[in-house]
Amino acid sequence: MSTKIDELKLDIEEIKNFIQQASRPRTKDILGLEVRRLQTELSKLIQKTNSTSTTSTDVTSQSAPKCYQVKLNNYGWDQTNAAVKLYVTLNDVHLLPKEAVTCNFSDKSVDLRVFGLDNKNYNLTINNLCEEIDVNKSSVKVKTDMVLVSLVKKIPKMWSHMTEVEKRNKESKASSIMDATGSETDPSAGIMNLMKKLYQEGDDKLKAAIAEAWTESQEKMASSF
Asked: CA quadruple 52, 57, 63, 66: dihedral positive or negative?
């Protein structure tokens, strides 16, 4: 059993090396899928080995407990000019065998997998990172109740966001606000645009309030002449 586990680990590492050498995105995707398939097979072998070592001989005919797939969405992160660090909290993760925690890197993605933790397989995948990372220098470490993923930046600089999607969403919101308020050189036009936007999107109560305010402002302007 251990020989099979060792062979799978070597296969996974070799394919990861091919991913680093590949230049075409489609080729990288295909190799990435094969890595994930082998990682799943490795997880099953690890679970079977752990089950065999912890059960007595009179119950060896019982099947190993089913592992549930859990997608991780919550993580902490901070950065320096040189690297981004991801902090993934998982109780007792440090008690797992070393091979139960793997991480696959590409230029703009990270795929963390934790196998067989309390009958669960955990997965954290982040695609379309804000900037490119150095695959060869990036790494994963297991600490007490935590997995630390280090993403070494190809170009040393601070990232505005973790992913391109987050960056685009923020820029889109900022653009919408500018469109609603107008340019800084024409504040009155900006206010008018904002009032129109609020009127179009508001409920009846808000529309009535805006109409009343508009009427009052027009009356004041008429009386000033």
From this structure: negative
